[in-house]
Amino acid sequence: MIRLEGVSKIYPPDVHGLRDITLDIDPGEFVSIVGQSGAGKTTLARLLIAEEQPTRGKIEIGGWDITRIRSRRIPDLRRQVGVVFQDFKLLPKKTVWENVTFALEVSGVPTRRIRDVTPQVLKIVGLEEKAERFPYQLSGGEQQRVVIARALVHRPKILLADEPTGNLDSINTRDIIDLLLKINAFGTTIVLVTHNREVVNALRRRVITLANGQVAADHKEGKYLLPT
Amino acid sequence: MSIAITSGRIVSYAWKNFARNAWIGLATVFVLVLALLSVNVLVGVSAMLDRAVTILEDKIDISVYFKNDTPEAVLQQAQFFMAGLPQVREVSLLNSDQALDAFKERHANDPRIMEALAELDQNPLGASLVIRGRKPDDYPFLLEALKNPQFGSAIESKTYDDHAEAIRQVRDIGASARLFGAILIAIFALFSAMIVYNAIRVAIYTQREEIGVMRLVGASSSFVRMPFVVEGLFIAALALVLTAGVVAATIAFLEPRLIPFFDGSDPGLRLFFYGRFWYLLAAEGGTLVVLVTISSWAAVGKYLKR
Predict the structure, then answer these.
(1) Which of chain B's residues have a Cβ under 8 Å away from the Cβ of A74?
(2) Is the pTM here over 0.90, yes or no?
(3) Alpha-carbon distance A137 to A84, whole Å?
(4) B108: CB partners within 8 A, 6+ apart
(5) What is the Cα B233 distance to its own chain's centre?
(6) DSSP code of A51?
(7) Residue B200: in which H helix or E strand, if any?
(8) Fewer CB within 10 Å of terminal CB in chain A, N or C?
């Protein structure tokens, strides 16, 4: 599903974000990418949604080489890779319903399909009763669930969650992780970028540990390794 | 992706953008109206100057006074000959009484001539021929043509009402006005382009969050860009409509007041603007649309990097 071959990212003049990363993520996997600040987690996430291009190496998503993807193809990629960020990125003047449908509207999805799909994803994230509320009327966990709903409306093959629990308390963190597991159970590949040790250790799923821009460890049922 | 659905949403987003940034939009409209008005003032002044030249040119003629005893056949021959020249627009033959009336009318404001005329017992004038040429440049040729030996010797005198100096002055004013106007239009166009560009940039800055989300959830660059371009077109359309209204009101107010300056003739403003309405709309609207589209397109481009 996701394949990186010898991927490096160097920021001018000579700052290495990633060094010669090679890894494969299979369809349906739930993978946590962990590491300290500056380890290269966010750089890797940005490469996966083509916000940046690698300096060297090759990146494939579902067999599609996105290493040198053209700008006009990026929207296609982003409909296949749903993204969830720590800072939510919700539109404050739009309701829950409008925030979710916005993703479909800007992609040219017909109105009838929008009316079909939106209640389904709001049900998955448990917000069907709060569709008419604005983001400021929701808790942090609920806002993050709206973001997940928005990421799901395109039925992406991959959901990339970059520190999705960074702004949440432990209860909301548990809810969001449970929701990601539920989405994973439907067959969506989940890439969770986090530095939350408790979450990673509780998941008992594959863990890729980055350190200094390199893969320091990759365990099938891994744990968050303490830095050495 | 359906073109109809996408177009509808682009127009809808553009309208929302315009409504959210109404004050910036109206300020931009105001500047565009000023720019368009400067163009139309120049066009109007140019039209009035052309009209003034036409009126002056229309007043040029040659009056040929024949000797008192000139036979009718010679007069007819002179009229026939002159009327046959392609440079001649109109020839009128006046008998001695009509010539006297015309002379009196022409010199009505000159008391010395009128007094001298009153002293005479009989009509001193013979028949006369009034000749109007097609172009001011034709008159030297017509004066030469009057030396035709068949009737030249019967001519007592000739007066050539030459308005060449006045025409030259009007044309000089016209040329200066056009030059000054062109410079003014260039400056306004530059300012308009900069203001439109910056107004759109401000509009985009206020919506940078929304643009970021649009990019994140898979909106194409054109879908992000087009609402801002369409918003620019709304602004351009509003500016055009307002300018048309101001121009129409100005013509209605100004034209009756200008008639005395045109010797009682129609200054031709209404005729000029209304007769060329679609042409002017297409020329000014087309230029404005190009200006606004390029400005909007360039302003959004900065926010569309990956």
Answers:
(1) 215, 306
(2) no
(3) 20
(4) B114
(5) 27
(6) S
(7) helix B164-206
(8) C
Tell me, what CATH number does A98's domain have? Answer: 3.40.50.300
Query: What is the mean predicted confidence (pLDDT) over B100-117?
Result: 83
Q: For B179-193, how does the pLDDT look when each residue is reduced to its tens digit (9 = 90+)?
A: 887 787 778 777 777
A108: chain B residues, CB-CB within 8 Å: 1-2, 5-6, 9, 223
**Which of B142, B162, B182 is the C-terminal boundary of a domain?**
B162
Distance CA B114, CA B105 (A): 10
B172 shares a domain with B46: yes
Write out the residue range of the structural domain in which residue B134 sits: 61-162
Q: Which residues contact A185 (CB under 8 A, 6 or more apart)?
A: none
Per the structure, the count of domains in chain B is: 2
Is A78 in Cβ contact with B218 (below 8 Å)? yes
Same domain (yes/no): B68, B133: yes
Q: Do B195 and B275 belong together in one domain? A: yes
Which two three-digit tokens encode residue B131?
A: 């000749």
Find the residue in B nearest to A104 (Cα): B217
- The whole domain housing A158 covers 2-219
Selecting from A72, A79, A89 the residue whose C-beta is nearest the C-beta of B218 gives A79
Count of structural domains within chain A: 1
**Interacting residues of B63 by C-beta distance below 8 A, sequence separation 6+:** B102, B128, B129, B130, B131, B158, B159, B161
Residue A225 lies in a domain: no
A89, A105, A106, A121: best to mutate for the B interface, most B CBs within 10 A:
A106
Residues B87 and B129 in one domain: yes
Given the cut 0.90, state whether the ipTM is greater than it: no
Angle between helices A111-124 and A140-152 (to 10 degrees): 140
CA closest to B215 among chain A residues: A75
Residues B272-306: b if buried by 16+ CB within 10 A, e if exposed = bbeeeeeebeeebbebbbebbbebbbebbeebeee
Q: Which two tokens stand for residue B39?
A: 């163009």
**CB B219 within 8 Å of CB A75:** yes
Q: What are phi and psi of A100, to 5 degrees?
A: -75, -45
Closest residue in A to B208 (Cα–Cα): A91
Looking at the structure, tell me whether residues B276 and B196 fall in a common domain.
yes
Cis peptide bond prior to B124, omega within 30° of 0: no
Q: What pLDDT digit, counting tens, does each position of B25-68 carry?
A: 888 888 888 888 888 888 888 888 888 878 877 777 888 888 88
How far the first Cα of chain A sits from its last, in Å, is 31
